[in-house]
Amino acid sequence: MYGEVFVNGAKSLMPYGSYGFVKREINLIGSLTVREFLYYSALLQLPGFFCQKKSVVEDAIHAMSLGDCADRLIGGHCYMKGLPNGERRRIGIARELVMRPHVLFIDEPLYHLDSVSALLMMVTLKKLASTGCTLIFTIYQSSTEVFGLFDRICLLSNGNTLFFGETLSCLQHFSNAGFPCPIMQSPSDHFLRAINTDFDRIIAMCKNWQDDNGDFSSVNMDTAVAIRTLEATYRSSADAAAVENMILRLTEKEGPLLKSKGKAGSATRIAVLTWRSLLIMSREWKYYWLRLILYIIFTLCVGTTFSGLGHSLSSVVTRVAAIFVFVSFTALLSIAGVPAIMKEVKIYASEESNQHLGALVFLVGQLLSSIPFLFLISISSSLVFYFLVGLRDEFSLLMYFVLNFFMCLLVNEGLMLVVVSLWQDVYWSTLTLVSVQVIMMLSAGYFRIRNALPKPVWTYPLSYIAFHTYSIQGLLENEYLGTSFAVGQVRTISGYQALRSAYDTSMDSNSKWENLLVLFLMAVGYRILVFVLLYFRVGKKEFLYKIFKCHRDTNNAR
């Protein structure tokens, strides 16, 4: 692909805020109302005071005829019924309108819309275009009513320009090339039949049976021949010359340079994104509150299974097993949050494509909003497990248990973000996470002590990569450091010696805090890796795709 982009006659890239880009697949937040969704989008995009952005949102709602559903939940995802596709498409466009762009690129605005919704969409876009916003969009097929609303059209086939000019002139162009539109046929259907090679395959499939209505189309020659004829006719037509003259005239005289409208500050974006995520978490019962209920039910099951262990020497092995099951299986259970994280990453990719936010802002906002939820899970699950199993009754030890499990959840959340960012598919992300979790459980030192594991792969590096190792070891050290057990009537052994026989550990006065530090560093490291993945894979890919679309549309116009 090659070409040049001219903005008001000057060769340059379009500054932030001067354009908008709406993808075909729109990712919306179902737990927010239309007005809330647009207001948060305005807060992320626009600088200035909060009160000033309300009028911008109301203007966007009015421009896209969303007043009737402005206070309704967008729906979908976790809800029984969401807004129809027509409203959802218009919400996606309204999100870009809060910046009041000069040019709006839309990829298939009629995608998945019925005839009535498609006509309403085009009437709304026509009204928007009359306000001074230039609309450039792609479309594959339209009804007669929708086709009549177009100002100019560009017909493409296999990358070749077959026509570019006024809509009414296209009918004359096809007639001049020998393909007049039949009286009872829609112009858009006629154009599609003439230039779409897929119709040749349909006719080839139907040659074995006779159609009672005669030929399939008035175009009775091979589509490839029709395409070559139309392309040659256009090159020698007055329409092509008019387009070339228009481009020369526009590029010779430079207009005013478009200026960036400014962005909201990073601190503002983080605060808005955190608050929005907290609001979503409070409403998304299926992926947040349900996970909390599942954790409590699971810890009740584990706690009652291992209840009544006592504090004798014989209970050490069973208590090690209880802590291993608690850490390992809660990590497996957290995979239920993959769909929610997947949704967050897709919304990030959608918003980042127009530079509404960056990878760092997304990660910080996601972390801050998830901390209250993860801490609620950690303290509720820890309390249930701690007292049912009967661990040492000291407040400081209980707080360490809660903090250790909280760090474990943070690490696991970071691991899920890494996998989801890599795959961006629920099935493959879930399969990968299950496999990784099982491998980490095998190398954590419970099924076989770490010193006895095969040195290549299992000991180095898997046992050191597995966060289970540090979480379990820290919890065991927290339970047995400073304890002793009687052996017979005279001899006693320390809790460290008893633990060494059941689990491989190197316990000292500070080792449990060192394990906690390792978990913290792992949580940070995973998020740094996510930042790299999002910045170079998701964000840049979407941004380059947007630039590519801008170049492609310009090339087609030329």
Structure explained in plain terms:
The protein is mainly alpha-helical and 558 residues long. It has a domain at 266-545. The chain contains 21 helices and 11 strands.
Q: What shape does the CA trace take?
A: elongated
Rg, nearest Å = 31 Å
Distance between the termini: 13 Å
Total helix count? 21
Q: Which residues form runs of ≥5 with pLDDT under 50?
A: 538-558
Main sheet overview: 3 strands, parallel
pLDDT averaged over residues: 83
Tell me the β content: 5-15%
Strand elements, count: 11
Structural class: mainly alpha
Q: Strand order of the main beta sheet, please?
A: 3-4-5
Residues in helices, as a percent range: 55-70%
Key descriptive features of the protein:
single chain, mainly alpha, two-stranded antiparallel ribbon, 558 residues, 8% strand, 21 helices, disordered C terminus, elongated
